[in-house]
């Protein structure tokens, strides 16, 4: 592969974020502006950094590293990518035959997984950081020899920014060992306390313990069956017991799940996952069991199911809720179940609801959005203000049979309508800060009218269209 670099935006410019060996051999370094790099190496291929995917990969690697030590933390420093892990292996190395054997096993396992790596063991976290990133191999610094191990390494191994490294280089200081004999007061006065602190941390004069991240709690339940099962009723009963166990754990943690996955393993060791999504975080086992019914009917049991595992996904905090006497509040569970049923069949992005918007123009007072989003965001419709029709449609011109304000009789959609009652007018002006197609910058008057045949219409008087004889239009219908 030719020269390749990952680029990211820094200081309002795209800069090289990570390089392969071909790019490094060509003379490029991290932090160089992409325009400058292209001027030096026109054949350079690049890709924009994807921090979210990098973070997800590092999180997976974090879980994998737990096999070597219970104390695992992400490694990095401000201004640089978090591209490594730091392990406190105190009391762990002898389980693998010593530090060197442990390091070689870790490196070989990562290589087997297709991950290029550099590992190092040292007395301090800072020293291990410098050795792993500069030596680029599996190396163990002898205990008590940290000072000698770091002496010939470049300054960037101290976890300091590029500007500080460049300033030190201008003074003729290119390695960590070159700082040993420089008075600390001079370094702190010229480059700040961070440089002195990093040097002392690397040499062990300042403690820097590994702070492992809190383990991610996984909510799951499993069941191994003494005899394979294949009947839907048997699978449903097993699922009911698993749901009871899972929901109990979620309740104790004050949490709910947005989705749940059932994995069944057949007697031939083949597995089949069944995923169910929810409209909002929940731990209602009875409702979730009903959502599984359709999926269980389509489940292929093969020669029998011998193992089931149920795992909560998208776990979020969920506090207990007081039951309300408001019937609309009591029906929220049924609405959530309906959204979940439809979403699991046709996709949650296809289930829409109306979302209120701040606008006094009727056709702009709402948007269509995903129903699942409305179950997590507080959405309230304005209760005050004039009534609006339940059905809105583009204005449809009507013919006046008996003129008036509003007309006494009109012809609409091929039939005559005699107006028995009318209420209005309500004057609505266009929003001057927006484009308003069909308004011509002038207000309109709206009337609520009722025909003798029971028609309840919303009539608009468009003063600008009067010269074309289309000044009255029907814009909606009331229930």
Strand content: 25-35%
- Radius of gyration from the CA trace? 34 Å
First-residue to last-residue Cα separation = 68 Å
In order across it, which strands form the biggest sheet?
A: 14-20-19-18-17-16-15
Principal-axis shape: flat
Major β-sheet annotation: 7 strands, antiparallel
Mean pLDDT rating:
83
Report helical residue fraction: 25-40%
**From the structure provided, what is the oligomeric state, counting identical versus distinct chains?**
single chain
Q: What is the number of helices?
A: 14
Helix-strand category: alpha+beta
The number of strands is: 20
Contiguous low-pLDDT stretches (5 residues minimum) are 322-326
Number of domains: 4
Label this structure with key terms:
479 residues; alpha+beta; Dna Ligase, domain 1; 4 domains; 7-stranded antiparallel beta sheet; 4-stranded antiparallel beta sheet; 20 strands
Question: Care to give the gist of this entry?
Answer:
The protein has helices at residues 21-25, 34-40, 51-65, 99-112, 125-135, 146-150, 162-170, 184-191, 193-203, 232-252, 285-297, 327-330, 332-346, 371-374, and strands spanning 4-10, 13-19, 45-48, 72-75, 84-87, 120-121, 139-140, 220-229, 255-266, 271-282, 305-317, 352-356, 366-370, 391-397, 399-402, 409-412, 415-428, 444-451, 456-461, 472-477.
Task: Annotate the secondary structure layout.
Blueprint: E1 4-10, E2 13-19, H1 21-25, H2 34-40, E3 45-48, H3 51-65, E4 72-75, E5 84-87, H4 99-112, E6 120-121, H5 125-135, E7 139-140, H6 146-150, H7 162-170, H8 184-191, H9 193-203, E8 220-229, H10 232-252, E9 255-266, E10 271-282, H11 285-297, E11 305-317, H12 327-330, H13 332-346, E12 352-356, E13 366-370, H14 371-374, E14 391-397, E15 399-402, E16 409-412, E17 415-428, E18 444-451, E19 456-461, E20 472-477
């Amino acid at each position: 592969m030719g020269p390749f670099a990952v680029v990211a935006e820094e200081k309002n410019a795209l800069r090289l974020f990570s390089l392969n060996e071909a790019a490094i051999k060509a003379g490029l370094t991290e932090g160089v502006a992409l325009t400058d790099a292209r001027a030096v190496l026109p054949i350079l291929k690049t890709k924009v950094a994807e921090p979210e995917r990098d973070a997800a990969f590092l999180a997976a690697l974090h879980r994998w590293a737990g096999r070597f030590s219970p104390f695992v933390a992400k490694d990095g420093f401000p201004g640089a990518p978090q591209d490594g892990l730091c392990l406190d292996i105190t009391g762990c190395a002898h389980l693998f035959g010593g530090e060197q054997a442990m390091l070689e096993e870790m490196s070989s396992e990562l290589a087997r997984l297709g991950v290029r790596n550099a590992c190092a063991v040292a007395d301090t976290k800072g020293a291990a950081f410098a050795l792993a990133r500069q030596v680029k191999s599996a190396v163990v610094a002898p205990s008590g020899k940290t000072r000698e191990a770091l002496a010939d390494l470049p300054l960037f191994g101290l976890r300091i920014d590029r500007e500080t490294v460049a300033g030190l280089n201008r003074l003729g200081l290119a390695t960590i060992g070159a700082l040993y004999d420089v008075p600390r007061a001079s370094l702190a006065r010229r480059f700040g306390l961070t440089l002195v602190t990093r040097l002392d941390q690397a040499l062990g004069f300042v403690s820097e313990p590994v702070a492992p991240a809190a383990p991610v709690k996984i909510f799951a339940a499993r069941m191994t069956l003494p005899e394979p099962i294949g009947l839907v009723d048997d699978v449903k009963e097993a699922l009911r017991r698993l749901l009871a166990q899972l929901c109990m754990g979620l309740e104790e943690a004050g949490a709910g799940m947005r989705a749940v996955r059932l994995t069944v393993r057949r007697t031939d060791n083949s597995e089949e996952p069944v995923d169910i999504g929810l409209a909002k975080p929940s731990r209602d086992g009875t409702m979730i069991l009903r959502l599984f019914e359709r999926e269980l009917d389509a489940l292929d049991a093969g020669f029998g199911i011998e193992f089931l595992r149920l795992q909560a996904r998208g776990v979020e905090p969920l506090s207990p809720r007081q039951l309300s006497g408001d019937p609309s509040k009591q029906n929220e569970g049924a609405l959530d179940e309906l959204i979940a049923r439809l979403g699991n069949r046709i996709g949650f992005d296809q289930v829409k609801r109306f979302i209120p918007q701040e606008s006094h123009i009727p056709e702009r007072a709402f948007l269509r959005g995903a129903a699942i989003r409305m179950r997590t965001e507080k959405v309230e419709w304005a209760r005050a203000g004039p009534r609006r029709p339940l059905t809105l449609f583009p204005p449809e011109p009507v013919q006046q049979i008996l003129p008036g304000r509003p007309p006494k009789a009109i012809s609409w959609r091929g039939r005559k309508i005699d107006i028995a009652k009318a209420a209005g007018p309500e004057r609505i002006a266009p929003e001057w800060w927006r484009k308003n197609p069909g308004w011509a910058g002038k207000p309109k008057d709206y009337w609520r009218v009722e025909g003798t045949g029971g028609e309840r219409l919303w009539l608009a008087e468009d003063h600008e269209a009067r010269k074309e004889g289309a000044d009255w239009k029907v814009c909606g219908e009331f229930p």
